[in-house]
Design a protein that fits this description.
The protein is mostly helical. Helix content is 64%, strand content 0%. The chain is elongated and about 70 Å long.
Length: 92
């Protein structure tokens, strides 16, 4: 029996309200609940961390090797995938 007098077969730490409170307290899911500047900073950091990798992958293209501005733009656009995936994960 719990405090409301109702017998529940689910352990207290696995009840939906407790799970929700644990998620809200985690560092990843607390980004959107804080100030918008902390969310933007986290997303910008994730974008900047993946940007060199995406530019390196884009440099494997023969056509982009001859055109550095397009190479950088292609890498920057491709690196937007990580922040978008992070936002989708927080939203769902």
């Amino acid at each position: 029996m719990d405090s409301s007098g109702v017998s529940c077969p689910v352990p207290p730490e696995q009840r939906p309200l407790e799970e929700f409170q644990q998620l809200c307290g985690s560092w990843f899911f607390s980004w959107p609940t804080g100030q918008s500047s902390s969310l933007m900073r986290s997303l910008l950091t994730s974008w900047l961390l993946i940007l060199p990798v995406c530019i390196l992958v884009a440099s494997g293209s023969w056509t982009l090797k001859q055109d550095p501005p397009r190479l950088i733009v292609a890498g920057a656009v491709a690196s937007l995938v990580l922040p978008i995936l992070l936002l989708v994960r927080q939203w769902l």
